[in-house]
Structures are given as C-alpha cells and as structure tokens.
Fold:
Amino acid sequence: MDPNGRKRRKGNPIHGWVVLDKPYGVGSTPMVSKMKWLFQAQKAGHAGTLDPLATGILPIALGEATKTVPFMMDAEKAYIFEITWGETRTTQDAEGEVTASSDVRPTDPNIRAALPQFVGNIEQAPPKFSAIKIDGKRAYDLARAGEAIEMKARPVRVDRFDLIEATPDTATFEVDCGKGTYIRSLARDLAVELGACGYVSVLRRTRVGPFTLAQSIKLDELEEMCDVARVSEGLHPVTTALDDIPVLAITADQAVDLRHGRGITAPSDSPDLVHMDDFIRAELEGVLIALCSPQDGIFIPKRVFNM
Structure:
C-alpha cells in the first residue's frame, strides 16, 4: 500500500515506446511480455500484430504510452516482402500446407502491368489464418479446426505497391498501406490475377506511423543492456506517437483542471485550435498532460497522462 492506502502497482513507472525490430519466429504477444519484464514496467501493449514469420517494426507501449496505442493502430505502415512462385499455401505464407502448384512464373513486365489495380482504395478479403474475429472466435482458430469460414471482403487502402526485384522463382515488393491491409492477401490476389500460384516467403515491416527501422532496436541489443537504467536508452517518448497532433501550451492551474477531468477555456492566442475536429495535446512546459477534444470553445480532456 502507498501512504494513501492505495494498492501499489507492480513494476516501475516507466513510460514510452520501444520500437522493436521483432525477430523471426516469435509472436507479438510474447514480445510485449518480454519488454514488460526487461523494463520492469507496470503496463505494456503493442500497436499492431506482426505475424511470427514476419520481422521488423513492432511498436510496444510501456506505462502511460499505452493510452496512445489507438493512434498507432490507425497509423500508415510500410512493408518489404517476397513472393515465391509455384505453390499456394493454406496460410499464404511459408508455414502453411501446399494446396496447389503451378509451373507458371510471372515475368517482370506482367507483374508490373498487374500492380496498378491493387493501388488505391480496394476491396480485400483477409486471410483465413488471421486474428480477425468471426462470431467471437479468431479466424485462425476456426481455420485450424477445419471449419469452413467465409472471409468477407472489406475496404483497405494501398498507397504504393512497387516491384523491387524479380527472379524466375521469386519477386520482391515494397508496399505503403493503411490500417487493416494484409500483405498475404495482396500476394494471394496478385498471384490469382497473374494466373500463378504463390505465397509470402519473406515479410518485413519497415515503418509504423513515425517509427522506422532507423529508430528500432533488436531484442538481443536490449537484453545486453541488462539493467533498467541502460534499457531505458532504447525508449522513445510517449509523444512520439502523437507527432502530428497540435500542441497547446497550458498553465499549471489548467493542468490541475485537466487532471481532474475538467475542461479548460481555449486561450485567445490559439483560436484555430478551437475549431479542430480532432485531438490537441495539452502540455505543461513540454510535459504531456492530456489529449483534449475541442467542444464549444472548451478543451475537454479525453485521455489524461500521469508522468
């Protein structure tokens, strides 16, 4: 118990983002648990699942950064991936069982000619082996149980789909896309369009919102740091996930109001912020206090931070 009689939380009050370069062969959830243990943090969560067979950017939020996870879930993402031609697999990646084979090997010109139809706002059916819920159950659990399931197409956005390299048996691509886009589905649909069989043999996520590989850190590097003091060197500020949200400088009295759930009046020198449809960041001397929503000239706290 603390001096006020409240139950103490286990762990340290560590807040920020770990931009993990996730290794091959491990899932996102075990990595969250690993980061929570390494940092001895009170809370942890990730922003967007990355398949076990994929590598690359897995942003993991610690402490108060978990309150900003929804902003990262909606962030744009970038991938580099490889299709191996000749086989179709149940999971659309190397893990699945072969369901069909073909001698068709798409050529560089044929691939490039097919790509434009997969750019823009498109309809895409997620893979059956995915974390999407159907009647409350994960699609991959139903698929593994042998149940017949229908994955309904849904709108997604692909901003860029470029062929980087082509060999007789493989093709490597780069993709920039919006929330909910499945690379395995892109590969599946492209193979069908080309009259070929193919599956994703390499998948690497290179960006999630503001987080890039240049900012990332590998698991073994974090483990080598050994103690919490050094591990914290691999932590990015909570506000990194909120870089595109306007900042409102507030007073100490206004910070008290926001922390108690009370709205504050918009200052006269920030008239434009009042008319925004989205969030603003209320900060006291550079410290994030709250994310607020403007309503009738008042900034209403929607998420309050305790750092």
Notes: The radius of gyration is 23 Å. Residues 77-205 form a domain with the Pseudouridine synthase fold (CATH 3.30.2350.10). The CA atoms of residues 19 and 59 lie 5 Å apart. The longest strand covers residues 154-166.
